């Protein structure tokens, strides 16, 4: 194994005896818990034969769905060498406001920091918004202390006040206490001392210090991020412990790994201490897998679209790297400033409910039927028409072999027709017209989100390849291509469980940042007043060392460790910064040149004579797990015969050939209309579109 750093490559033997994930030759299982289905992807070693499973999710206890998926895959605990998991537990807790009861301790005078916030507008028109902070004002407290931006103590901490406050908080039925003091990024001493004092009074408290979550100077974003961490930590801790107990009773003897929002894994036992990083756990896994598959297929500009049962998640990847968001707004005035893959989500999934608003306009979502009762066609008591019901009515889904069900299950076609027909009557539309209208509305919403994400960054979506996945993604991909004007769509071999596959192939990752505020001067003058190259190198070295220690704590077998250093820089006076990858040990001139090159590449211009400031130093430490690729499907360009045909409605009812994905060999080429069925999803290829199997088994759908 090797450690890869920008400053060199070194032997690495640190993790050789610390593996808790089991031998590489064992089966690796990825599981993603979605709003409607819990998906499982298993790669059986040494032959690499994959197995996929979809079972209904269990919102009341997501760990039940995890065990249900393992049971459906006919696995025993001893069969599994590694279990990797994406979860929505943190996301759902925020949406439903069922996190921990918390208190917030701040510097005197900053009790209202959550309300002060930043100037933002929850609505396009008007300057009003309803704020619902995670910690209400009567659970926030102030202490006397003050540290300046250089880390100098101006007012010592009043420890007696903290003792008195801790005694008072014992009776408040709190699970977590968040400590966020002004300028703690520069000197965390007071925050850490308050933490010691609080735990001395009640060790059961979850005490979160803002410097341990984010060492940057944005006091509002740092406080908000720490509050989200404290709000989620007890819940995520309990879930991870509960999941571990269930898996242990099942016979699994290793640590499960959990996907983070940054696309990296951590052991489930550590999920609580990094709970704020769990917010986009599942969607991040899909983006990681889709980006990797597209890069292997030769596509560098990629839009990923994940259509599940409750939502549609869209992201962008350039040159094999998913775009990351610096700050993510979870709700009005609830930002989190931790590295996250920039995934935009709208309520547009297979279970999204179609309804008519007060103006008589057809709407789809954001409400969802979820897994229970689910769409009407599932026969579990659902009564409102959904996107899935519309697809069933139009013959696009095989009612005799629905995904995520056992072989004896059949969809309730008549129930779906009745529900869609009643909605159509309200709109004065026929049955097929109403079903097409439902699909048109949901497709328009998804296409609009793709346009918004690309155009707001100055990108033309028509230059991109769409990687469409999720249980419902391939059903709607052809329509999105036509709507947006995309030329190519890639459908992976297992699009319906791609998030689970992403969990199975992801690596470990830890991110670190610290505000430094170093003045780099100007290119013309070459001034470097105040720049401390050794100090910057020391910060990078400390971050790298911390990352390597975190990987050691993770205790997972690794093939290599990569270290990447970044600097957030800006022209003096600019609010927005640009993240630039840098080498360890660079001086001011090298840093300036790297920033200017990236700035000109991004904006097409530079600002001659303007001074440059280095605001934050960042380090990403990635632990590469050993990877094994599945064998590619056999070649043979001759297109197979369709298994059968059925009537499918496009603009009219057409007798449409139905193929099975496993029958399509490398090089096979077909022209729509056609349906391709597989265990995890159904692909609809519209009339006139061409589909070809590439060298690794992906389906490439192209417009003429």
What spatial form do the alpha-carbon principal axes imply? globular
Q: In percent terms, what proportion of residues is strand?
A: 25-35%
pLDDT averaged residue by residue: 88
Query: Which segments are poorly predicted (pLDDT under 50) over 5 or more consecutive residues?
Result: 1-25
Structural class: alpha+beta
The major pleated sheet works out as: 9 strands, mixed
Number of helices: 15
Tell me the distance between the termini.
47 Å
Q: Calculate Rg over CA atoms.
A: 26 Å
The helicity comes to 25-40%
The number of E-state strands comes to 37
How are the elements arranged and paired?
Blueprint: E1 2-5, E2 8-11, E3 27-33, E4 37-44, E5 49-56, H1 62-72, E6 80-86, H2 89-96, E7 102-107, H3 113-116, E8 140-143, E9 146-147, E10 153-155, H4 159-169, E11 176-180, H5 189-201, E12 206-209, H6 210-213, H7 219-250, E13 257-259, E14 265-267, H8 281-296, E15 301-307, E16 312-318, E17 321-322, E18 324-325, E19 328-331, E20 334-336, E21 340-341, E22 344-346, E23 352-356, E24 362-368, H9 387-393, H10 413-427, H11 431-455, E25 465-469, H12 473-484, E26 488-491, H13 498-505, E27 508-521, H14 533-554, E28 560-571, E29 578-582, H15 588-603, E30 612-624, E31 644-649, E32 653-660, E33 669-671, E34 674-677, E35 682-685, E36 690-693, E37 699-702
Parallel strand pairs: 1-28, 3-6, 6-13, 7-8, 7-11, 11-12, 15-25, 25-26, 32-34
Antiparallel strand pairs: 1-2, 3-4, 4-5, 9-10, 13-14, 15-16, 16-17, 16-22, 18-21, 19-20, 23-24, 26-37, 27-30, 28-29, 28-30, 31-32, 33-36, 34-35, 36-37
């Amino acid at each position: 194994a090797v450690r890869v750093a920008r400053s060199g490559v070194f032997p690495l033997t640190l993790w050789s005896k610390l593996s808790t994930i089991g031998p590489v030759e064992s089966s690796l299982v990825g599981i993603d818990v979605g709003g409607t289905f819990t998906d499982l992807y298993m790669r059986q070693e040494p032959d690499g034969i994959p197995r996929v499973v979809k079972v209904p999710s269990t919102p009341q206890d997501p760990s039940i769905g995890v065990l249900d998926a393992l049971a459906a895959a006919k696995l025993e605990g001893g069969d599994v060498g590694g279990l990797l998991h994406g979860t929505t537990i943190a996301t759902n807790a925020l949406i439903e406001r069922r996190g921990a009861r918390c208190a917030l301790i701040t510097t005197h005078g900053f009790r209202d920091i959550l309300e002060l916030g930043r100037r933002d507008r929850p609505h396009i028109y008007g300057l009003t918004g309803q704020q619902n902070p995670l910690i209400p004002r009567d659970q926030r407290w102030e202490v006397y202390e003050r540290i300046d931006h250089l880390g100098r103590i101006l007012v010592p901490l009043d420890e007696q006040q903290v003792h008195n406050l801790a005694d008072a908080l014992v009776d408040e039925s709190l699970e977590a206490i968040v400590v966020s003091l002004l300028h703690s990024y520069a000197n965390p001493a007071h925050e850490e001392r308050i933490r010691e004092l609080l735990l001395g009074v009640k060790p059961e408290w979850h005490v979160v210090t803002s410097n341990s979550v984010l060492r940057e100077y944005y006091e509002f974003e740092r406080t908000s991020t720490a509050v989200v961490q404290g709000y989620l930590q007890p819940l995520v801790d309990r879930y991870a412990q509960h999941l571990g107990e269930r898996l242990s009773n099942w016979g699994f003897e290793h640590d499960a790994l959990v996907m983070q929002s940054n696309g990296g894994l951590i052991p489930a036992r550590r999920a609580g201490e990094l709970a704020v990083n769990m917010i986009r756990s599942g969607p991040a896994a899909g983006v990681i897998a889709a980006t990797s598959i597209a890069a292997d297929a030769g596509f560098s500009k990629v839009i990923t679209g994940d259509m599940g049962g409750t939502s549609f998640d869209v992201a962008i990847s350039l040159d094999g790297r998913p775009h990351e968001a610096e700050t993510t707004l979870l709700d009005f005035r609830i930002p989190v400033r931790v590295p996250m893959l920039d995934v935009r989500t709208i309520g547009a999934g297979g279970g999204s409910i179609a309804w008519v608003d007060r103006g008589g306009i057809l709407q789809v979502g954001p409400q969802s039927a979820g897994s229970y009762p689910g769409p009407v066609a599932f026969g579990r008591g659902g009564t409102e028409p959904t996107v899935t019901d519309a697809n069933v009515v139009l013959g696009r889904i095989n009612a005799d072999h629905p995904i995520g069900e056992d072989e004896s299950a059949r969809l309730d076609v008549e129930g779906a027709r009745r529900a869609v027909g009643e909605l159509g009557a309200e709109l004065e539309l026929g049955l097929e017209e109403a079903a097409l209208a439902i699909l048109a509305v949901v497709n328009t919403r998804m296409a609009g989100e793709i346009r918004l994400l690309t155009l707001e960054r100055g990108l033309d979506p028509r230059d991109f390849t769409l990687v469409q996945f999720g249980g419902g993604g391939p059903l709607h991909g052809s329509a999105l291509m036509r709507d947006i004007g995309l030329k190519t769509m890639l459908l992976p071999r297992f699009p319906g469980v791609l998030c689970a596959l992403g969990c199975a192939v992801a690596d470990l990752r830890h991110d670190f940042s610290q505000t430094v505020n170093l003045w780099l001067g100007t290119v013309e003058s070459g001034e470097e007043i105040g720049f401390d190259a050794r100090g910057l190198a020391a910060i990078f070295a400390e971050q790298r060392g911390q990352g390597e220690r975190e990987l050691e704590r993770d205790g997972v077998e690794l093939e290599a460790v990569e270290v990447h250093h970044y600097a957030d820089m800006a022209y003096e006076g600019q609010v927005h910064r640009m993240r630039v990858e840098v080498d360890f040990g660079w001086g001011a001139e090298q840093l300036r040149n790297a920033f200017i090159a990236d700035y000109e590449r991004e904006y097409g211009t530079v600002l001659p004579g303007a001074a440059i400031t280095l605001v934050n130093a960042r380090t990403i430490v990635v632990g590469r797990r050993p990877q094994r690729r599945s064998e590619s499907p056999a070649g043979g360009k001759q297109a197979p015969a369709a298994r059968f045909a059925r009537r499918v409605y496009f603009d009219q009812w057409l007798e449409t050939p139905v193929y099975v994905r496993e029958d399509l060999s490398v090089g096979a080429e077909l022209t729509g209309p056609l349906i391709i069925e597989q265990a995890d999803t159904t692909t609809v290829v519209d009339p006139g579109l061409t589909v070809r199997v590439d060298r690794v088994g992906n389906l490439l759908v192209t417009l003429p």
